[in-house]
Amino acid sequence: MKATFYNLNHTVFRALLPAVLLFSTACEKVLDIDLKDADPKTVIEANVSDQPGPYKVLISRSVSFDDPNIFPAVSNAQVTLSDNVGNSETLTETEPGVYVSKNFQGVPGRNYFLKVVANGQEYNAVSTMPPAVPIKDIAIEKFEFDQDDTVVTIHFQDQAGVKNYYRAFYFVNGKMSDGLYFLDDKFSDGKLIDGTFIDDDLPLKSGDSVRIVVQAIDENVLNYLRGEQMLSNSQSASPANPTSNISNGSLGYFSAHAETSASIVVP
Amino acid sequence: MLKNKPLKSGKWLFLLFFLVSSFTANAQNAKFTISGYIRDARTGEELIGAAVSVKEMPNTGAMTNSYGFYSLSIPEGKYTLVAQYIGYQATTKSVTLNQNLKLDFGISGQERQLQEVEITSTRKNENVVKTQMGVEKLDMREINNIPVLMGEKDVIKTLQLLPGVKSAGEGNGGFYVRGGSADQNLILLDEATVYNASHLLGFFSVFNSDAIKNVTIYKGGMPAEYGGRLSSVLDIKMNDGNNQKFGVSGGIGLISSRLNIEGPLVKDKGSFTLSARRSYADIFLKLSPDSSLRDSRLYFYDFNAKANYRINDNNRIFLSGYFGKDLLGFKSLFGFDWGNGTGTLRWNHLFNDQLFSNTSLIYSNYNYNIDVNAGNSQFNIISRIQDWNLKQDFEYYPNSRSTVKFGLNSIHHKIVPGAISAGESSSVNSRKLPNRYSFENALYVSHDYKLTENLNLAYGLRLSAFSVLGPGTFYTNNTEGEPIDTTIYSSGKFIKTYVNPEPRLALSYILDEKQSVKASYGRNAQYLHLLSNSTSGSPTDLWIPSGTYVKPEIADQVSLGYFRNFLDNNYEFSTEIYYKALQNQIDYRNGAQLEFNENVEGELLLGKGRAYGVEFFLKKKYGKFNGWVGYTLSRSERKFDQINSGSYYPAKQDRTHDVSVVGIYNLSEKWTLSSTFVYYTGNAITFPSGKYRVNGRIENLYTERNGYRMPAYHRMDIGATWIRKKTEKFESSWTFSIYNVYGRENAYIINFEPSETDPSRTEAVQVALFKMVPSFSYNFKF
Fold first, then answer.
1. N or C, which end of chain A has less CB nearby within 10 Å?
2. Measuring CA to CA, which residue among A73, A160, A65 is closest to residue A119?
């Protein structure tokens, strides 16, 4: 179970892995596996927030596993954002596959609708923007599981009696951690929630500037993120594509969220 | 045969009639009963499955039951009786039979292991003449000689070298029998269910081979006294202890040390045995210069204890128990422990020379416990499954052609799926998933009957019933697994009851004393299911009972076999072909949340399956060189409407080819050499068929379940046992072994990830756990 932003399993295995490795003589080897080539699928990544725009919608396609990491942009799509009080805007493609809003403004409590028409296919999604959650404090601490490591911690208050879903982003000197940080309040309804951030690729040193963004998201987006996180568990007996809130078999997600942020400099 | 409908009740009446008529038909001549026990002369341990034959009446004999008791009814006369057991000297007794007779045998183990001796009996061809098929017995001495990982003798690892029984892989304590999943095996230790049979996350089994007397696995054609699982029954019996003299034995190995104490409570009347084992990797960890290693905890221990006392000739009681635990932790920040506890109280009672009874009261428990004490997250999680089980078994020996078994079994299951307790200041709330209560009952009757000299029939019926008991909240889910309704039941209420008649039938026809053909059919029902959505299983995997949505799993299996012995019974050959149809199998929805989920049933899919295959087994039982070769060609498939567009797909445990070779060579009085080789087709697995970018990450694209294969697995192990000293008073030996002697890198997992050398590409990286692992252990006995 998860009670804080860091993944408990990950932490535990980090702590115990050396002990397990002591017994085994684990060794790695690159394999050449003849994988099937799935038909390309459309990938949509769309966000609307309570912060001023522009908001971005990214549209690309999947490729074969053995291809280079170049994901073809889907151009000339018709992308429309709207809400349940009558606002609507068609986005402009500023570079291939990147669609940007101009005047559209997200407001917590409203429902948002995404409509994409690309290559003759129509994709639709709905997302509800929850109210923002203020970060109470941010600090730099020693990592309890390994005193040699430094972590960033935050606290925020969960609202009791309602289901809340959170997503966080972790930036070090403006560089974003590619870890997925998300949480629900299933185990901590109404509690003061702590978040701990550590990324082996972004070790902290004195003078580093750190920023944490916390988004209040809706349930479908959380389920999507959870599904995406499960993809990195190579022990899963039934890996599958995360359940998207976008229709018509599209990959990706549409998230309407309210966000707050906090910054600190590593002493 | 494979229709889902239960057989019409009229057919059962006919069978019952047949059962009764078979007793009366043989009750015409004056007959007397010889009964008694067959024991090891040195230790007084009763021998299970030992044979008594009558020299003057070929084809007449009896076998000892699980408690070493036999009963044989034959006409008045003078006879020579021979008691035999593999690895023991045959013992002969002459009797004049003119009244019922008690006759116990004490037979002596042979000095040299499994050496060929002159036996003028037909019983060396037991495998040919017995009716039961799909059964394998492990000889404990074979287990001691077969090399295993880290030199840790292991019942379950050795069992996996038999055809039809497949390893679930390295770092996985489970095993697969004839295409079934790991939770479809009933593992019994002195009749108590062991819910999690692995130590150290699956590298070792919980069974300390020092404490074990007998291991039998039924892969098909299960006798009616067993039920509750679809694929197999692994029936493990603990040693009773030496009732002649005190003894201490033990061993020191790389992973663990063992100590066993046994002796008489009252000479010839009662004995006890106590075995303990503890691993000590944590002690090595303490020596490490790396602080994170020093602060890690990782060890297991277990105890086996048993005592028995013979009150008089007709009454005997046994008390046995097991307790084991694994502990894993890091400083005071994190602790995780899990383990089984079992207890069995048994009473053997002889109503008369022909009616043997055993009454057992059995307790079984598995639980895990997680403690987290990091930052504001301070909480504890517990989960448990606990059984109370009452079993009553009767064995009736009306005449030398018949054995009748009947009885009942009543189990109360309590499952605590999970409870979190946390302090006020913790960032986590205390919370508890509701307990699940259920009641599993069965009645059974079976009759082994020798129709003619050559034709044996064993038939029976097990009538099982499973009731889901209140209190509880049950969800009704829509086809997407989302709850649309909830019903709350009060305490003690029978929410749902399932009843399944499980017919069992076995036939054998002895072509001649060297060969036979056998056939069997059986239906099995399973009411408890293990939810495990990882390739290797975890101590936190959850058992759930059948309920309003999850139905009992049902399997119908037919099998046909040919058994043939060669060269004066020195070589045994057998082949069995089987087909199994499975109903109400469980798989998971995409992205299933199995942890701490009140409505976990909403994450499950129900479907069906089929498994079929052919097994070949060639064994050389006697001589300086002995061992076996097993080969299985098989398929195991599942079908779910929501997976792979509703077509059949290979189950994870589908293995096309599976080969195992075991060789043991008794070089001299002092040295025994051994080697094993295994090869099997890789598991069916889901690999990506593409990739895409989202959230700045490259993610894999999946299109179908289990559409790929892991690479084939193969490995050779070698071992040697050196008996350093062997006298009446003291014995010591060294065991050396090398696991994976040619260093094959067998894939444990395969990761699909960005290339380390070229970030613009992705690659498949295989992780192998063990290359070559040498080990040694020292064993002593006095």
1. C
2. A73
**A chain contacts of residue B764, beta-carbon cutoff 8 Å:** 30-33, 35
Q: Among B149, B421, B429, which would you mutate to test the A interface (most chain A Cβ atoms within 10 Å of its Cβ)?
A: B429
Distance CA B256, CA B277 (A): 7
Nearest residue in chain A measured CA to CA from B707: A36
The enclosing H or E element of A255 equals strand A251-265
Cα radius of gyration (chain B): 27
The CA distance from A169 to the nearest CA of chain B, in Å, is 11
Residue whose structure tokens are 């416990």: B369
Work out the number of other CB atoms within 10 angstroms of the CB of residue A113.
17
| Number of H-type helices and E-type strands within chain A | 2, 17
Instruction: Tell me if chain A has a CB within 8 Å of the CB of B588.
Output: yes
d(CA B628, CA B623): 13
For chain B, say whether A113 makes contact (Cβ under 8 Å).
no
Q: How far apart are CA B175 and CA B178, in angstroms?
A: 10
> What is the DSSP secondary structure assignment for residue B88, as one 8-state letter?
B
Contact with chain B for residue A190, Cβ under 8 A = yes
Flag whether the ipTM exceeds 0.85.
Answer: yes
Q: Is B759 on the interface with A (CB under 8 A)?
A: yes
Rounded Cα distance between B63 and B512, Å, is 21
Report the pLDDT averaged over residues B637-652.
94
Instruction: Give me the phi and psi of B167, to 5 degrees please.
Output: -65, 140
Residues A228, B372: C-beta atoms closer than 8 Å: no
Closest CA to B623 of B571, B683, B573: B571
Reported confidence tier of residue B637, pLDDT bands at 50, 70, 90: very high
Contacts with B284 from chain A: Cβ below 8 Å: 22
At B622 the pLDDT is: 79
pLDDT confidence of residue B44: 87
H/E run at residue B341: strand B334-352
| Chain A interface includes B767 (CB < 8 A) | yes
Interface check for A26 against chain B (CB to CB < 8 A): the answer is yes
Instruction: Give B-chain residues touching A145 at CB under 8 angstroms.
Output: 292, 330-331, 333-334, 374
Longest CA span, chain A: 63
CB A19 to CB B281 under 8 A? yes
Q: Which residues lie across from B296 on neighbouring strands?
A: B330
Residues of chain B contacting residue A11, judged by C-beta atoms under 8 Å apart: 334, 374
How far apart CA B496 and CA B499 sit, in angstroms, is 10
Chain A partners within 8 Å of B705 (Cβ): 238, 240
* Amino acid occupying residue B263: G
> Helices (DSSP H) in chain A: which residue ranges?
8-23, 219-231
What percentage of chain B has pLDDT greater than the value 90?
A: 49
The predicted-structure confidence for B96-127, as pLDDT tens digits, reads as follows: 988 888 899 998 876 544 444 444 333 567 77
On chain A, the residues whose CB falls within 8 A of the CB of B711 are 31
CA nearest neighbour of B679 among B614, B635, B631, B636? B631
Q: Which among B483-492, B535-544, B576-585 has the top mean pLDDT?
A: B576-585
Q: What is the pLDDT of residue A16?
A: 52
Token pair recorded at residue A202: 């972004």
> Among all chains, which residue has been given the structure tokens 């307990």?
B435
